[in-house]
């Protein structure tokens, strides 16, 4: 990893993969085909892209039971404990409706209503992501969403990873479909005979999934188009180089375009972490990916003061931020922009990925300047409530009519004034 001074930084932003023209065209064709042929199109695309023929894409009880048999019992208990932690955290986010009665009898308020149906896309194939099931489904359930449909691509044998199935079963998800890619997004958005349409689609995926989510947005809601993962670590000379290096590499191994950045005021730590990253890379199973990540998008930024270091973090606005200093809560007060903030030596980023409770679906690529982690509010709607009293109308109808006419909207003004004629009768 290269060591830079703050004035040598250009940008750590990476363009979100918008795909090639061929990929975008292919996604549009897939979506159109699913809209036209429904389940028949899903079967064809599953054969083409996943190499398996499925008569029925919906997962049955027998498959769930088999998944439990394949899972270590202690690991199942770990999953249950993680789910409980995540649910407990998100329960504290829940909003409630409110009403305010004013002296003139007018009632104003806000009504909270959960989205009816949510589709959750879980990446699959050769990989297994039970954590994605938890992080996308649990906040929807806490919000009160009645129906959750989950899609994930089947493996070569036409099966799904046991961990994913067990995670879904722990949460009570009873709609699980072995469908992946852009075709899954299309099915969730527009429906087939087997899969009823949803109102919002959440969850990560490859470029085809991202492009499909872009394409269906407007007909349904989506969570976000996330870029490659990233971590920034704000550290002083109390941090341990081997631990900082390990945490940087925890994100570098995700993707060659992931970004891992150390921001420090310690020259000793900068040099020690640089050497430690190189040493740990040599034994990392995903060395090639992680090495390219740290070479292309990684850096150690040496600042002259903690204030400059804090400003640097706010400029980066990282997805994950670890604060490993002698007084991390002092730095917390200065941090404005970060998706998730991990404080202290024992709060390494993977703890948030899997177990602590906060959501790991986070804004990337600097969007933490204006975006938040996936949360319960992403699965509700807010309706404004207005019950205007006669007294309030009498006191304000002339003002409102004048305001309407200021904008040239005579019918608006007359609508407010029409009550006057009725009252004078």
UniProtKB/TrEMBL annotation:
Pathway: Amino-acid biosynthesis; L-histidine biosynthesis; L-histidine from 5-phospho-alpha-D-ribose 1-diphosphate: step 9/9. Its cofactor is Zn(2+). It is an enzyme of class 1 (oxidoreductase). NAD(+) binds at residues 121, 183, 206. Zn(2+) binds at residues 251, 254, 353, 412. Its EC number is 1.1.1.23. InterPro entries: Ald_DH/histidinol_DH (IPR016161), Histidinol_DH_CS (IPR001692), Histidinol_DH_monofunct (IPR022695), Hstdl_DH (IPR012131). Binds 1 zinc ion per subunit. The active site is at residues 319-320. Pfam families: Histidinol_dh. PANTHER family: HISTIDINE BIOSYNTHESIS TRIFUNCTIONAL PROTEIN (PTHR21256:SF2), HISTIDINOL DEHYDROGENASE HDH (PTHR21256). Belongs to the histidinol dehydrogenase family. Catalyzes the sequential NAD-dependent oxidations of L-histidinol to L-histidinaldehyde and then to L-histidine. This is Histidinol dehydrogenase.
